[in-house]
Fold these 2 entries.
Entry 1:
Amino acid sequence: MRVAGKIVHVVRVTSCQFDYFNLFYMKFKFLLSAVCSLSTLSIALSAQNLSELVTLLDSGEMNQRTEARNSIQQLLTNSTAPTADASARMVLEQEALQLLQSDLSHSAQVWLLRMLELTGSEASIPVIAGYLNSPDTELRDCARRALVANPAPEANAVLYQAMLRSSDAEKRAYIDGFAFRGDGRAVKAIVPLLKSDDADTIALAANALALLGESSVYSELKLARTNAPEGSRAAIELAMLALGADASTCKSLISSAANVGVAEAAFVALIKKDTTEAVAVLQAVVDEAPSPLRTAMLGTAMTAPALQVNLLKNLDSRTPEDQLIILSGILEQKITSAEASVIALLSSEVKAVRKQAIFTLGVIGGSASFSTLYSLFLNEFETDVSNALAMLDLAAIDNELFKIVENSPDHKQVSAATQLLAMRNAEGATDLLNRMIAPGNSDDLRVECMKALEVLGTLESCQAMAQFIVSGDSVKRPAQNSLKRLCLNYGDPDLLWNSVFVPALNTAANDAIRADLLVIADAVAGDDFLAYIQKKIFDIGSPLRPTVLKTLQRWPHMEASEVWLELISTPNVSANDIKAAQSGLERMVKSKKVEGWEKLKLDQIVFAVEKAPTPEFKKAMVNLYLKPNGYIQHYLHDAFEQFADDPDISSEVSAVLAMVPESKVRRKR
Amino acid sequence: MSSKKIIKRRSFLKKSAAICVTSSVAPMILRAEILGLNGRVGPNSRINLAYVGIGKQIGAHFSIAGRQDVQALWVCDVKPEARAYGLSEIKKRGGECKATPYYEDIVNDPSVDAVVVCTPDHWHAAISIAAMRAGQDVYVEKPMTLTIEEGKAMVTACERYGRVLQVGSMQRSNSAFRKAAELVRNGYIGKVKEVLVGLGNFPQPKLWAEEPIPKGFDYDRWLGPAPYEPYSSKRVEGNYGGGWRCYWDYGSRKNGDWGAHHYDIVQWALGRDDSGPVAFYPKEHEGAQYHSFEYDDGVKVIRDHGDRKGHSIRFVGSEGEVMVSRGGRIATTPSDLAGRPLKPSDVHLYVSHKQQVNWVECIKSRATPICDVNIGHRTATICQLAGIAERLKRPIIWDPVAEQIVGDEYARRWQDRPRRAGYELPV
């Protein structure tokens, strides 16, 4: 069994030395276990069940067969639990083995062998071994797999003998089995196969030897390579690399390997064996023309400190392709000493190189990176640069930014600094920004600070901005934008509605000012605000009614549909209200911005059809599904078939249902 | 099992290998034409790509075939109609490529730089390892492997051959999942107590009456290393509600389906990418209502617990919660956590906006992709161990350092599965 690339043995400890070619001992142990089993037959109730279940494996009913398979598997695997009675497990296994030796159907034999793959003990080996001679290919293969999975060392000898008499194709399966078992004792059996005439057999033998990790076979591999038939050389070379090829061999394989994979593997191995030689190879490689192997080797070199230094030299004069590889290495290995070289790449004309250099500085950079990036940011306000500045982990940066915000007369500097303080989520930034938005400071500064608060703001920030809106402050418009964004980032709509919007509405001088606040209130789309809207909508004379109708049309959740349905059900509903409801419901279905399960949205549309105030409204609702997506198609028949005979919309319903492919005609609601 | 088919495949392999070897004999000194083996073009040129497994999941991968820096050379599938579909999709994107039922054609083609492995899970390891040992980079769909030991072999191969391997647990490339993981990882919800994860369920795997194998479909090869079973269309179909995904022989059911996404995010958020849980408990064990697993610090991950507040994953911490789902949906308690930027001293997780694009960029820069072989292996290990506990109906104790099941020698056998003759695993 392989563990993190190494081979460990998953075998039970036996007190007796096993001889590969001595099956006598094994037969003796089998007889012994059989005698034990006979002595415990009194607890063989489960075996009775097993026999009955096995007969069901040939049932004419496929469901019964499935159940029989599942039950047999459960019965046998339950018996292998560490807490289970070991003797009961043995009894059950014996029953399974006896059944296998009786006159069973093919499918029953297959299933029992597959179950013994999971549960068979040493005692099962002789019976399963008998199947290795079966004329039936499937049974033979099931038996091989059952033995391969059996950790008892005795299985090795049986597999080895079977391999000797097998065809080339099956031989390869046995070799794979030895590798699977991870039993180093199989090496002796595999080595002779390196001399096979068959390239596939040699390749698999080499694979298995590599997996088994026996370096003692290195010379045999080396010899095999000199005579390797076509198609086996790569596997042999890879096995040589896995089993201790020296630096000289690694070096020669880099240039003479059977394929790029082997050449790269040889370079990986060479770095571990001899860094001096690896550096020499790398120096030669750097001067080569571009190739996938060269690219891979440069990438690998950046993971080895002894080789990195060669690539970091003259970084700015290398090709952009090489620069990208080296920059990735600097980033992943966090090579802070390369800061100056990376800064030099900021002048690269290749966009990708410049972008990668900026990002790399954000991760590995120090004060030199800050001053360089900050100057860039002041000039161009690039997103990549601000992101890098936001990541730079230097305490001094925040102090400097605070000073700029509080003292600098340069608006550009202050704007940049407030943005960065927000992006860096700097300690104390929120308090500072809350102070800076107060009237008395310059409007430009207040607007910048409100923008910064969109991500950092608190309830106090929201309340201040709401007051700017209802008090007609000179920053009213920007305050509307910032408050809306801040509310969306802040979440908790009911809290914001009750603590920010309601108090501000109460202090507003008139309804026109209230409307200025309500127009952005879809950012606090919660139950409490929805209840307020509902109240205003059904208060026909309210001057705020048109505003809240518009806000409801932008509602981000499908809950708004309840209000629309209620509105269209009102007696003598106006044409304008019908239009508003239609628009709101259409947006609910079509806009991805409106949250809600599509199926539930469809249910609401069905209600809307049922309650439709006009035939046109009905048609508009059905037509929403004229281009249905693959998911909702499953539900359309159940939703709209009931309206097929409605003279108002029968043709619309037919058109929608015609869009549904046969395979999606019906799904239970 | 058909030995005829195996012989056919073998003789075919020899032919392909012969082409490969003949063209790669070279002197023992470093020269440009040696490093640019067999006339392959350099990194300035396009990445020559091959697709193996043209099923339901392939759509997302074809998009990279339309990139200027990528050229599709092959599509491969055992079903003729899938090959035809693959060819037509490449053509739509302005490409021309060849089709084959044999992945060995691709592995032995020295002009192929990279391979997308999009087959059912039981084929992932063999094809990926074969490609890597031929010097090809790999994108393999999630879960990375069918068995734990295959995963270890993949890790070894990737390191040995210096390849760039990306696993398709693509929620890592979604900003909401990344944000959720960063909030958890940096302690914004305090100490994590439990994680509730929704995977859903597949129908139980069933035996179906045998049907004739469709003309041209190489069913034996579709089964590959898995045990032989009579053909039925419902066994091999690739739909998301069942098909092969229901069968333990070819996948890990919901553990490998949604689990390979959500458990991957749990690992990321908990900072366990190089480790894993220590115990797996099946439903009904000591009256448990749900399948679950546990980390060494007591964090419990509970599958399909209903109280996820409408989300796919809910992290419950001592000072708050993070809920996250596809579609960019994230919610937190306190509510303002999601909108807050990280501090420079916080752990900033790997940023990728699209898994496939990240892979292509990493092929060029040789950077480690967002979901590399080690991460893919550790996540797949969880999927598989959860499946083992579920099937054995008993707890499984796992040593994430030694990577072995502990104290249950029969359960340990389930860490790997012997392969059918003719479908051996390369190393």
Entry 2:
Amino acid sequence: MADPPRLLSPALTRRRLLVTLGGLLIGNTLLGWPRTRLSAGLDHDQLRRSMREAYGEHGLAILEEWLHLLDRLDDSDTDTRLRAVNDFFNRRVRWLDDIDIWNQKDYWATPLETLARGEGDCEDYTIGKYATLRQLGVAERRLRLIYVRAHLGRSQTTQAHMVLGYYATPGGEPLILDNMQPSIVPAGQRTDLDPLFSFNGNGLWTRGSSQSRADPVDRLSRWRNVIDRMRQQGFTLGR
Amino acid sequence: MSLVKQLWLIILGLLVLAFGGSLFIGVTSSHDYIEREIRLKNADNANALALTMTQMPKDDVTLELLVSAQFDTGHYRLIELRTPSGELIERRQAEAGIDGVPGWFVDVIDFDVPPGQAGIQDGWRQFATLTLEGQHGFAYRSLWHGTLALAGWFLLAGLISLALAWWLVRGIRRPLQAVISQAQDIAQRRFTTADEPRTRELREVVQAMNRLSTVVGEQLGKEGQRLDALRRRLQHDGVTGALGRTTFLERLGVHLQSQDYRAGGILALIRVAHLAELNERLGYAETDRRLAGLVRTLERLAEDHADGLVGRLNGSDFALLLPGVDDIDDIRHDLHRHLAVWTQDASIPLSLPGALALYGPEDRQSDVLSALDGALADAEAQGQQRLNIVAEKHDRLFTGHAAWRDALQAAMQEGVQLARFPVLDDRGRLLHMESPSRLYLDGQWRNAGIFMPWITRLGLEAELDLSVVEASLKHIVEHGDPVGINLSAASIRDARFVLELQARLQAHPEAATELWLEVPEALAVRELTSLRSFCRELRPLGCRIGLEHVGANVTRIADLHDLGLDYLKFEEGLTTDIENSHEQRGILRGMATLCHSVGMLAIAEGVADPAQVPTLFELGLDGVTGPGVRSATPGDASGQ
């Protein structure tokens, strides 16, 4: 995305990143934790294994919390779900620029990575929320990731930003899940945001299949790349 | 399945696998690549257009213009705008644009490309969904042309590979065939040696077989020498190495009675005068040495005239038999020149009077010998170097070359008659009819002894032999029984004759298998190279080839083992006296065994006494012929 704001800077080397991702890929054979019933056929074992490999017990703990959240929201209504998910990510994740977290100018992290590190920038929040809501069974067409121009305070300063929009009706006004403003409000009330373009996972999935096309070329796109990595870590998006 | 066929199958299989696989992989990867490109193009274009539209006013005209502009300037099959609830806003569509590509190819390739989709925002609201599909008819076309080009190249490469493979297989096949034919030769007990091929494995096989052939050849050679030594001890004079009296006279009798070229010729007697005196002056040892030297001189002369014989009739009389020769003055001159070494010896010259006589098929042996004795006595009385010629008592048929030529050619035009003498095996079955030729000359059928010398002198051998071949083929076709005929040495040497003979045999392939061709041994071994190529050319046609009058020199049989001869006919001299002579039987048994070990039949010629026949078969012979042999079938009696 454009140029995100830079505030804090814990360092993470690129090497660490590679080790992490490698570990995520390799860690398929270790222990089987008791499987709990959960929405949308999430592969718990695979998620836990990925997490454990990459981030150890600390990562596992936060993963369990996230899974618990999913469990808890299984029979809730949409409003509750939106609020809970929005809050979960806004509280657990500290805002930090990509360059400081991942040592890259623009890195789209998976929810697992974002939660485990507890750090992320605007699209990491958005992706996390999107993935969690999808996991809870919210329809693809109701969710859109929206590029917005954000006006900071009363100044004329603007910055590139991303939020998640929830569309109760296709042509209607969305609810905005944002990390800069903790509460969910209808888009009309967000005068500080200026929508520019939106997208979602529509069209990524082949007909009737939960798999995206296993095509390395697709990963050249950031959006498809992050979805691909999520799937490797145990998400089963697209059902 | 033959090795060559297997090689071909492997080569073809590899080519099909390699080229089929390459074609499949090439087309598949192109297909995947193109499909991916189209999909990315769809998705990217959809997003780009949606992004633009999101920024623009959303009135109908602007939207229509944007869609039209994109559609008209780009390569699209479909651009469609629908509201989030699915109502159509704008739509542009074009033909699929697949032409020049066969329908089946389109079905096989069948690009599966989802359209690109992107949402258009109007503020926070979702305004519309954009669906976009690129034009990919070109992809079918380019893939089709690529496939054609690839298939064309594979076809060309396949043809080149096949040409190379053909060359390779041929390189293997030829030496292989040579190895096979050598192996077959050995299976038929013809121990041939072959050139070593370049292919290593084949070379080793050929080397092994060549070694085997050489060993067998050496063993046969040793055995032949042993038999020859035995025979010499029996038949030859111990001092001089000339034939003994009995043997020589027997041979002379055989010659006179034979129906072929041997029945006419020259017989010479040479006497070492004053032998007793010589013994006294020189001592026995030196005298014997001189006598042996004289015999060697005579033998050289005999060899010059094909199968001549030298015999010692008694202590001082030596005989020289030159069958098939009739220029007596020439021979007299020759003899004189050869004997000069001894008569003009400075220290103690030998006194060597002699006499020469022509003999013919009508002559009796005793008449010829007594006439010669008389002439010799005259010569001895007249002087030491005198060589008398016995006056010719019988008339010649014709005088002069021209007369003979005309008469012989006329007779050959008239047709050759074949005499018929049965050759029977141990159970009395007919092996073949030995058929010497006869010509109708001067009002009567004459046998070969009369006209053969003139045939030779006039160089008409090939002509006569061809007439005989034709007559015998005709006989075989008409009567079906196998026929054996003589060929002269000059004929087998004559390449044109061989070609003509091949042509005639090929014209009667059935009859050819019943034809037995024989060549006099003494003549054949002098023309070993010709005989070898003759055998090579004619054996494939199915006729049998053998040697007749074998006897004088058994050791040569060993040299003949790789020729592929089918049979040998042993001269009468080898079969006489077998009832009484243990050694004679030994020789005959040995020779029969030798023949069998190289896959030849052993046949005894000139068997006069029917009582001998069982003994001969006991000794291992495969066939007998001669005056004492009568066919069971009436009408097949010897002669006409």
